[in-house]
Specification:
The chain has 306 residues and is an alpha/beta fold. Helix content is 39%, strand content 18%. The strands form two sheets. Strands 2-3-1-4-5 form a five-stranded parallel β-sheet, sandwiched between helices.
């Protein structure tokens, strides 16, 4: 049986430990902060132990040897390993807030004292910017998940979906709904704005529902503009997905945004996933409605616990 390797990289404070715990619960043998120099020997050891599902987290603390990682992954792929690379990201403001709340020190910070002190913010931002530079190449070749506006439980679910649903070599198409009023997802490869479409929010009997509910679905199927938008987006993807797959892309994230991320974007994400599921490995997720209960997350508690 082929060895399956999940490589988790990303910004400090973006949720790598949360993702690693999700994979551990899914039955993976997990190692945090493995030095890149040990990657090939570690995989060789796991093969002698007949381990077939391995997850490894690496971060900027191994900065000097991170450039070795892409070459090591190519070597492992030639040896038959199935490799999935995940990169967890978040906005700089989000990362600063998480460090301020946790009062932990960033691993690349050169400042002494409390990271939560306002006087230390410039040093913390400098450390975050340096980390982005060091990790830029790994981000370019991985599936990116923006954790800025999602809960730890959402991240765990997204990671499990990627691991369980996706195949090893076929391009995976991720459709994501979101609310423009809370910002565009940082992990999106393509963004479509559907705020000009008819809005069920102004229909009292539909306001509390979502784009997954039958009454809302029936409403949208009676709207020619909605069907036109659906076919325009689908036509764009039909035109370019094969080229992206031929360019060795493993994941493509298509974000659909409306005002509240509840009706229009959710409906279109579900419809697009249905249209493409027979041709590509397809996932759908909903940044806003997946955050319930509690509606939208207002705290970063949980991201820096481990």
């Amino acid at each position: 049986m082929e060895l399956e390797l999940i490589l988790i990289t990303g910004m400090s404070g973006s949720g790598k430990s949360v993702a690693l715990h999700a994979l551990e619960d899914a039955g993976y043998y997990c190692v945090d902060n493995l030095p890149p120099e040990l990657l090939l020997d570690f995989v060789k050891l796991q093969r002698t132990r007949h381990s077939v599902r391995v997850a490894i987290a690496m971060d900027a603390r191994s900065a000097t040897s991170l450039p070795q990682v892409p070459g090591h992954l190519r070597t492992l792929a030639k040896q038959g390993a199935v490799i999935k690379s995940l990169f967890l990201d978040a906005t700089t403001d989000t990362l600063v807030r998480r460090y301020s709340e946790s009062r932990r020190k960033h691993p690349l910070s050169q400042a002494d004292g409390d990271e939560g002190n306002a006087d230390q913010r410039p040093a913390l931002v400098d450390a975050i910017n340096l980390e982005r530079e060091l990790l830029a190449d790994l981000r370019e070749h991985a599936h990116v998940i923006d954790t800025s506006l999602i809960r730890p439980s959402q991240l765990q679910r997204y990671v499990r979906d990627i691991v369980v649903v996706t195949g090893g070599k076929q391009l995976t198409l991720v459709f994501e709904s979101f609310a423009f009023k809370r910002g565009i997802p940082g992990d999106a490869d393509y963004v479509f704005d559907v705020r000009m479409l008819p809005n069920p929010h102004y229909e009292p009997e539909l306001r509390a529902l979502t784009g997954r509910d039958e009454a809302v679905i029936a409403y949208f199927r009676q709207q020619p503009e909605v069907e036109k938008m659906l076919h325009h987006i689908a036509g764009f993807l039909d035109t370019w997905l094969a080229a992206l797959a031929n360019d060795h892309r493993s994941y493509v994230t298509v974000a659909i945004g409306c005002t509240g991320g509840q009706h229009r974007s959710v409906y279109l994400v579900e419809e697009l996933a249905r249209l493409f599921t027979d041709r590509w490995t397809t996932l759908s997720r909903h940044r806003e409605i997946d955050a319930t209960p509690g509606r939208y997350p207002t705290t970063s508690f949980g991201w820096l616990q481990a």
